[in-house]
Description:
Layout: H1 2-7, H2 10-23, H3 34-51, H4 57-65, H5 67-100, H6 104-152, H7 156-166, E1 173-176, E2 179-182, H8 194-210, H9 213-221, H10 225-228
Antiparallel strand pairs: 1-2
Helix pairs in contact: 2-5, 3-8, 4-5, 5-6
Amino acid sequence: MSLVGTSISSITFLAYPGDAYKTAWLRYLPNLMLPVAIFIAAYVFLPFFRRGNTITAYEYLEHRFGPLIRVYGALVFIIGQLVRISLILYLLSLLIHELTGLSPEMSIILGGVLVAVYTIVGGIDAVIWTDVLQTIVLVIGGLFCLAVIISSLPGGLEQIITTASEQGKLAFSELRDGQLVPVEWSLSLQDKTSSMLLLLGLTAWLTEYSANQNTVQRFCASKSDAEAR
């Protein structure tokens, strides 16, 4: 559950629905490769981290390629996390601003300081258990939101499916000149096609589950390979 909590955030609950409203189900395609990436990570990459009794993904890089590659990998991860966390905190600040009236700047500071404090004080235990609670809250909250929407519509779930189908919202489409246009399934690395998005998904999820320190530290915190898998 902690791994799930690590992968979902305000991006999942705010940015993805906004993108889905614009491009229908196109954003869902990369997620179809998640089971494949997890299987590869569990049986190919995970043993490397477990065998050396490492704490970070970058210790393996040093053992295999030297200290310069370790520093490079760690710096790239930190820069990537700064960009990701900045986006997450900004989206979170929009919610805090709407709920409390605090300025977006103060909301960003409040959210960032709160998370930083419990992480520093509680260490990996605090990170894991707050992610577990976050996962429970977000899943229940997401289901509750769906229930409220369905119950608020005269036609309920049937109305949602009928309207979405009529407007082409159940297809793998992108927005072009204000119109939803289905993407092709041809093999291409230059145009946005379904096959390219599947390849993108495999790369992204392999990165998440085989090189992302947020995930690797949970591999290493497990008692055995079986538990880590």
